[in-house]
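Good day; I would like, with your permission, to put a structural problem before you. I would ask you to consider whether the tokens describe a fold that such a sequence might reasonably adopt. The full record is reproduced below for your convenience:
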Amino acid sequence: MTSWQMLIQPAVTLFSVWVGYILKVAADRKTSLQNHISDIKEEIEKLSSVSLEYWSRNVLEVDRGGIDIQQECKIKSYNHNINKIITNIEKNFRSNDYTNIRETITNLRQASSGGQFEIAQDREVSPEAIMKTMSICGELKIEIDTFLAKKKWYHIFQ
């Protein structure tokens, strides 16, 4: 081996290690993002399901019981979880896309809760609340997929 090859060999090795590290970091970030997206979609499905059950029943204020309170808590919890996960992956969206997603999340929260659960009142079956919630759930999933599809490969390193 010549002296030139002896000098260049460590540099080539270091460069190879560096490239391998960068690719590993990028793959880990992509996997993490995919896991978050999967978690969001799971929470959206749960919210859609419990909202459907909740708004499919007539309940008089005096008959409001444990199941109603459980469903209200689940709806709040799923909305909170969706919000939290989206906030955690905010950097993966363009700012105007993130603003659109935040607006859709706000609309979803309002549609699924029908306003404020804390106000004690009779609840009637609400096909409007069901349809609005289901529609916004689908819209949110599509927005997330569409906006992340715009993400360039080199943004994984951010």
